Amino acid sequence: MKKKLIIKICEKNKKKFSQIIRNTKFEIRGMLNSELLLVFSLASYLNINQIIESGRARGYSTKILARSFLGSEKYIQSIDYDRFGKDVKFSEKNLKKYRNIKLFYGDSIQLIPKLIKEDCIVIIDGPKGERAIQLALKILKDKRVKIVFIHDLHKNTFSRNLAEILFPHAFFSDDKNFVQKFKDLDKPIWEQVRNTGRAPYKRKGEKSESYGPTLAVIFNSNTIFDNLAIKNYIKHKSKKEGIKNKILKKLQTGSLVTAMIRESLVAIKHKLKRL
Ligand SMILES: C[S@@+](CC[C@H](N)C(=O)[O-])C[C@H]1O[C@@H](n2cnc3c(N)ncnc32)[C@H](O)[C@@H]1O
To answer: Which of 12, 55, 85, 158 is the right S-S partner for 270, CB 3.0 to 4.6 Å?
Structure first.
């Protein structure tokens, strides 16, 4: 899909979406409203009912999508591997009232392929970076996955460079025309995070070339799987597997015991953060 059409579809949906997000409290680590407009508009345009989200945390994106699709046949399946943290409890409580959401716990890398039942879109907002790209490549092999969205692909990062090479037709939400037309949707968010070092064209207090965290939109129809860059990347990854990746992979694909170890580590991390 061409950039012009993507922007046109979003323009058509902007008014309705503005009503949806009105008076909705933002949650830290959440996606921007302008990014979520892309998900809402494209899922509506393509008439896709199954929406899979990887990475829920405090559930801002989940809540906005649930509100966007209220009263329709669309449903959201939201995955997070954190079972014990504060965020889990928070989002469980806050999302309970939405009948069109189902919450899943576990590793998306294992869960997503099992969840796909019909034409769907997948939003990856955890794992991040290269692991998100690897997950996208894995699930895009299934032609029922019509779009994969990957969050946090700021310009001038290795993951962004890689995404641009592997998915040359991808659209990025830091596109200048897109930002110009839809940045007003994010005003309440920027106000809320004023003291956190997050602001337009700023990341962790430093100047950034991207307007915001940035959502990549990857259409399966544009992804050619015999593309040389993709083939070479997959070959390279399978050969040069460092010790860190080997351990991560083991933890991802391992037994219940390893899954429990990983979850305990996440829980410990959360406890330490609170100290
Ligand atoms: C940035 S937060 C998600 C924010 C949320 N999408 C929003 O807009 O409010 C990232 C989440 O991804 C989860 N995560 C990271 N890797 C994951 C994986 N492989 N499978 C499932 N969840 C994962 C983390 O536990 C964390 O809660």
So the answer is: 85
CATH number of the domain bearing residue 200: 3.40.50.150
- Stated pTM of the model: 0.88
My answer on whether 256 and 206 are in the same domain is no
Work out how many domains the chain is built from and give that number.
Answer: 2
8 Å CB contact between 266 and 258: no
Query: Which residue lies with its CA nearest to atom 14 of ligand 1?
Result: 126
pLDDT in tens, 72-96: 999 999 999 999 999 999 999 999 9
Domain membership of residue 256 as a residue range = 241-275
Token pair in block for residue 85:
């943290």
Question: Among the atoms of ligand 1, which is closest to the Cα of residue 61?
Answer: 8
Decide whether any atom of ligand 1 lies within 6 Å of the 108 Cβ: yes
Q: Report CA torsion sign: 87, 90, 96, 100.
A: negative
> Are 15 and 71 within one domain?
yes
Pocket lining: 30 vs ligand 1, CB cutoff 6 Å: yes
Cβ(82) – ligand 1 distance below 6 Å: yes
Proportion of the chain in helix, strand, coil states, percent, rounded to 5: 50, 15, 35
